[in-house]
Amino acid sequence: MVVTLVVEVLRGVAQVDFLPSAVCGLFFAAALFAAGWQYGRYGLLGSAVSTAVGYGLGLRRETVEAGLTGYSGCLVATAVTVAAPGFRRLWPQGVGPAAPPVPATGGSGLSGERLWRGFFADIGQISFMPQWYVGLLFLAGLFAASRVLAAVPAIPRLRRV
Question: What's the rounded Cα separation, in Å, for the pair 31 and 18?
Fold first, then answer.
């Protein structure tokens, strides 16, 4: 029973990319935890709660087992966690309009390292995470589910280079 629930929750996390794969969900959960423990915890918790709600509402067992009720909970919980720090800048209590906390800095040259980091960071944006290693884990999860599906987000990004 517990193993079944864990598999269903992980499938819910993988359903963020429309894949009913627990292995892919494990990679995606690892990516969320790599971005920050809050993202991983809330993503898994959101998937678990919405999976339990699916059972509680009496939805078809096949639907819940495929993770179709878990992905919305994972997405909402992760999105709220990502957006929550910015809420304080939206209504800044008498201060001017919302602005980034620090000015943008950095070089403008293009190097090999910037290209591969940018490639993976772009894939990490699937779940609103800008870290390159999150994108690498997401791509590994897609690859674990299907080599063809892993090419879907990779090929357009390679064409930009």
Answer: 17
Taking alpha carbons only, the member of 115, 129, 112, 113 closest to residue 157 is: 115
Distance CA 24, CA 148 (A): 14
Highest mean pLDDT among 33-42, 84-93, 111-120: 33-42
Give the predicted TM-score (pTM) of the model: 0.78
Q: Count CB atoms within 10 A of the CB of residue 4.
A: 9
Q: How far apart are CA 138 and CA 152, in angstroms?
A: 12
Q: Are 92 and 98 in contact (CB under 8 A)?
A: yes
pLDDT for the residue 130: 85
For residues 41-67, one letter each, b for 16 or more C-beta atoms within 10 angstroms of the residue's C-beta and e for the rest, the string is ebbbebbbbbbbebeeeeeeeeebbbb
